[in-house]
Amino acid sequence: MDTAKRLKQRINAEQMTAGVLVTDHLWTGLVSLVKNAGLDYLIVDQEHGAFDDERVSETCVLGRQLDFPVLIRPIDFRYATLRRVVDRGPCGVLLPGVESPSDLDEVREAVYLPPRGRRRPGGAGCHWVNGFHYENWKQEFEDDFIVLPQIESRKGLAQVDAIAGHEMTTAIAVGPYDLSAELGVCWHPDHPVLQEAVTRIREAGRCVGKNMWHMGDGPQLVREGFTFLCVGEPSAILADAMGAITRSLENEA
User: Fold this and answer.
1) CA 186, 189, 193, 196 torsion: positive or negative?
2) Coil, strand, or helix at residue 71?
């Protein structure tokens, strides 16, 4: 999984790494568009997006063929859900609503083969290893699989040190909208209560030498020192761009 390996290396080296979270419209050609735009990864949102499994699997396949990282955000992180997600062949997962290290223990069960876990591999993900011995799965898949647990609740915030330090965590992540609602400041992204929580999450990652995934205004996040970014949802980005063009035409008229 050289595609996942290179992305993981960028994340760990804190090189500028930017991508998108696809919620509204997914078609396989979007992978090429995102890659050609110079972005570094794409996350398919199956928590909120209404995409069928076949389309998601085809998107992961195209990502492999184009050597471009495709990750999945599943609706939850339970064993039965994740083992199906992993079979589609993504480079990693963005996990919503993680609240304890025991949640990540269940993730390990779904991602790792015995004796470290309970995965039963199948599906398109089997096409991206050079053999089916344990060593192939460990070295070519498991060692580079990316896991990003999102802190989106008070419970998760209280356990953030243990979540960040868990062996499955590649980088700690935040769900800023849901967390703001949980903290009683929905949606005030600059509110001190939310900013304090984000700082707490970031420090938990730093204490164990791990980066933090954040989503929002890309340039502003860069100014704040973040290097692992989600710069938006492609349809929303398109809508903003079309609005900007319309306003510029009106200004010229």
Assistant:
1) positive
2) strand
How far apart CA 20 and CA 76 sit, in angstroms, is 20
HSE value, Cβ hemisphere, 13 Å, CA-based, for 44? 32
Torsion of CA 96, 102, 108, 111, to 10 degrees: -30
Looking at residue 202, the DSSP 8-state letter turns out to be: H
Q: How many other C-beta atoms lie within 10 A of the C-beta of residue 111? A: 25
What whole-number percentage of the chain has pLDDT above 70? 100
Q: How many domains does the chain have?
A: 1
Q: How confident is the model at residue 1 (pLDDT cuts 50, 70, 90)?
A: low
Return the CATH number at 126: 3.20.20.60
- The greatest distance separating any two alpha carbons of the chain, rounded to the nearest whole angstrom, comes to 69
In 3D, which of 115, 53, 114 has the Cα closest to residue 86?
A: 53
Residue 76: give the domain boundaries. Answer: 2-252
Q: Which helix (H) or strand (E) holds 212?
A: strand 212-215
Say how far apart CA 194 and CA 198 lie, in whole Å: 6
Concatenated DSSP letters of 141-164: TGGG-EEEEEE-SHHHHHTHHHHH
User: Residue 67: exposed, middle, or buried by beta-carbon count in 10 A (0-12, 13-18, 19+)?
Assistant: exposed
The backbone torsions φ and ψ at residue 17, rounded to the nearest 5 degrees and listed phi first, read -135, 115
